[in-house]
Specification:
The complex is a heterodimer of chains A (396) and B (346). Chain A has 396 residues and is mostly helical. Chain A has helices at residues 3-16, 21-34, 41-66, 75-88, 116-135, 143-163, 204-226, 228-238, 240-245, 250-276, 286-299, 304-324, 327-331, 342-356, 365-371, 382-395, and strands at 89-90, 97-100, 111-114. Classes of the chains: A mainly alpha (396), B mainly alpha (346).
């Protein structure tokens, strides 16, 4: 990178070293806690969605960033999680009458109504299972072929839901999805027997639910990254033949990556389903997979903090900034809706990022070395570069 | 893919192989033939009609699939933006006809002339667009890990899709210049329509020209050499960058032609037609063994027939799922495609 970037990096690092890591953590957490009291409702609404996207980006980061398996069909797990919410927390199956610790309102409705926490757990397990089922066939594939197969799964799953209004592929006659209309309304988050949260009128409580979910995800991610499994993922990413030779079980390692990555997608899908009050097949398009992938790549594949930054930046651009800037094309004499071209803007960001800085804003040390392998001076001994980078790998 | 790139993989099985091995090697053919046979016995006329529709529709997929296979053969990159190049081809052709003011009611000479102009302009536009994409999005990443160009390809595809969105926000109808629904002749109770004839008549010369170009000319030889071993080709004095640009140009030309045919064949065009078409065509390219030109054509025709049969028997809503399921099955169980090890150009 250029000298300016290097200076900037040094400055950022010296600022970061002013406080120990735990103090930064508490500072950011404190900021996140008081945040809803300082912002307008439309910004808070965007922020809540952003929190849900952070969970997905962290989930995808496990598959793409840690294990190095390029997944272009992540939206499938969002879809599965959302439909689990639709099945277990709405009046969709009106013939059934099952209520487990549901809210005061939901208790009087037909259909299945479980408590939100149960649905979260059920969805995480169910999507995790599907992560394994969809991941298993791809185990022997690498690179481009892996990407295309996951993309195909990401296309098939929403199509199956869209068409499963009378059994799936002619088997059975259950309506699983209510077709293009989607499942709506969906139960609100609630304590057992109490009045549910009043979003979208009152957003603060649901913001804290989302924040708590992000913290759980963050904890899981950090612990996993430093665990035996996490180190196995990174070994598989770097060189799977070498990893296998060192005794890493490739099948189990990859399947765990798919399962946990998928679980987090489902986890977030449940939240988005209830927050948006609908489970609609239009949300589950390829563009969404790329949107989440964009967060991971632009932030810095494999680096948890980078991915969070990427998710915040892209999601806020998508949900807030573009809406604020909507007058701009009009002002310069162009007639189009800026929000309609958001995916084009992300495409442009992806392209620019890949050409100029393929390792992302806050790269993981190893990934950066990998992507700039060609630029490393051959006369320089490799050890020097990795010494300088070891800080990033261990401490962040 | 991995198997194909290993040079020491034996390409021929030793003599005296068992029936099981033979079955295993041709399993894809068997799996494709059985359903066709089943439906043929069940309802011959309908199935023949499906085959006709599938073959004519398949020519479009074949043209697009060739672009994938050419590019993959030479730089092992899935050109994700290729479907969008095809879409732009459709848009350009339709705009040309709108500018020239031709309608279905114009004179025959005017219609034929405008179709030829539309074809030429669409091909040129798509060809130059594809070359430009290579310059902007792939060339800077030639030595980067394979993930990087794949992601910049996705970025490019999204950009072009949004260009299409701004160009034509809603689906547009194309003047029915070829009176596509009109039946030309009937064979075995199957009516062959003008659109079917049109697709075949435009596609076949292009395919022949492409095979001749890649197989017989000096440029084609350079392409094949680069595909086989870029470093060795460079040592032999081949300009790699120019050869790769040429490959993208060829792929784009074919995609532009496919776009023009698609516009007249289907009668409507929209900005997101490229994504699905691209995936279908990619399936075709993989099925034929990626890098194999004849394979891509045959794969395209087969996918067309599968789609037509699936449309008839399961309804159009399940067809994309069927095609994608086939894509997954082929990639997972038979990544070298229908024609075994015979990959690369030719």
């Amino acid at each position: 990178m250029s000298a300016t970037a290097a200076t900037l990096r040094t400055n950022v690092t010296s600022v970061a070293r002013l406080l120990p890591n735990w103090a930064w953590g508490i500072a950011f957490l404190g900021l996140a806690v008081v945040y809803p009291y300082f912002v307008a409702p439309n910004l808070l609404d965007a922020s809540i969605t952003t929190l849900a996207y952070i969970i997905m980006a962290l989930g995808l980061n496990i598959v793409v960033g840690f294990a190095g398996l390029l997944d272009l069909g992540y939206v499938a797990f969002f879809a599965i999680g959302a439909y689990v919410m639709g099945w277990l927390g709405s009046a969709h199956f009106a013939d059934l009458d099952i209520h487990v610790l549901a809210s005061k309102f939901a208790n009087n409705l037909p259909g299945i109504h479980l408590n939100f926490v149960f649905i979260l757990i059920a969805a995480a397990l169910f999507t995790g299972l599907w992560g394994v089922i969809l991941g298993a066939p791809t185990l022997r594939l690498r690179g481009d072929y892996l990407a295309i197969v996951t993309l195909a799964f990401g296309e098939i799953v929403p199509r199956v839901f869209e068409n499963a209004t009378s059994g799936i592929f002619g088997i059975g006659s259950t309506d699983w999805s209510n077709g293009r209309q989607g499942i709506t309304p969906v139960d609100k988050i609630a304590l057992p027997g109490e009045t549910p949260l009043r979003y979208p009128i009152e957003l603060e409580p649901v913001y804290y639910v989302a924040l708590a979910m992000v913290l759980v995800t963050l904890f899981i991610n950090r612990r996993l990254r430093d665990s035996r499994l996490g180190r196995a993922w990174i070994a598989v990413r770097e060189d799977q033949v070498a990893a296998a030779a060192m005794g890493v079980n490739l099948v189990r390692t990859k399947l765990w990556a798919y399962a946990i990555g998928a679980s987090l997608g489902g986890f977030s899908g449940v939240f988005l389903a209830t927050y948006n009050n609908t489970v609609n097949v239009d949300q589950f398009e390829f563009g969404f997979s790329v949107f989440i992938l964009c967060m991971v790549i632009i932030g810095g594949m494999g680096n948890i903090w980078g991915v969070i930054l990427g998710a915040i930046v892209l999601s806020m651009i998508n949900r807030y900034v573009l809406k604020q800037l909507n007058g701009v094309p009009d002002a310069i004499g162009l007639d189009f809706d800026l929000t309609s071209v958001n995916f084009g803007i992300f495409g442009f960001l992806l392209l620019v990022m890949m050409v100029l800085r393929p390792e992302g804003f806050i790269p993981s040390g190893r990934r950066k070395l990998e992507l700039h392998a060609a630029e490393i001076d051959p006369t320089d001994h490799v050890g020097a570069a990795s010494d300088a980078q070891s800080y990033d790998v261990r401490q962040r | 893919m991995e198997a194909a790139s290993l040079p020491d993989t034996p390409s021929r099985t030793p003599p005296g192989r068992s029936v099981l091995t033979a079955l295993n090697e041709n399993i894809l053919w068997v799996l494709l033939a059985l359903p066709l046979l089943y439906y043929f016995v069940k309802d011959p006329t309908q199935t023949l009609d499906d085959v006709k529709t599938g073959l004519s529709n398949g020519t479009i997929w074949a043209l697009i699939a060739l672009g994938y296979t050419l590019v993959y053969g030479i730089i092992e990159l899935i050109n994700f933006a290729h479907g969008e190049v095809f879409m732009i081809g459709s848009f350009v052709a339709t705009s040309i006809w709108a500018t020239m003011g031709v309608t279905a009611a114009s004179s025959v000479a005017a219609i034929v002339g405008s179709i030829i102009v539309g074809l030429a302009v669409a091909m040129l536009a798509s060809g130059s667009l594809n070359t430009m994409i290579e310059r902007v999005a792939y060339r800077p990443l030639r030595n980067a890990p394979k993930l990087a160009p794949l992601i910049s390809a996705i970025g490019m595809s999204f950009i072009l899709q949004n260009v299409g969105l701004l160009w034509r926000p809603t689906p547009d109808s194309v003047p029915d210049l070829i009176k596509s629904q009109q039946s030309v002749f009937t064979i075995f109770d199957v009516a062959v329509e003008r659109s079917d004839i049109f697709a075949v008549v435009v596609t076949v010369p292009l395919l022949v020209a492409l095979l001749w170009f890649v197989g017989q000319t000096k440029y084609g030889k350079a392409m094949r050499a680069t595909a086989q071993d870029p470093d060795a080709a460079r040592l032999m004095g081949i300009d790699i960058d120019r050869t790769i640009s040429l490959t993208f140009m060829l792929g784009g030309l074919l995609a532009g032609a496919a776009g023009m045919i698609y516009a007249l064949y289907n009668g409507t065009i929209q900005f997101n037609q490229g994504f699905t078409a691209g995936l279908i065509a990619f399936t075709a390219a993989v099925m034929g063994g990626i890098g194999n030109l004849k394979g891509a054509v045959i794969g395209g025709l087969i996918i067309g027939v599968i789609q037509a049969i699936s449309d008839t028997h399961y309804g159009g809503i399940w067809t994309p799922a069927v095609v994608f399921a086939i894509l997954i099955l082929v990639m997972v169980f038979r990544p070298q495609g229908l024609f075994g090890e015979e990959t690369r150009e030719g």
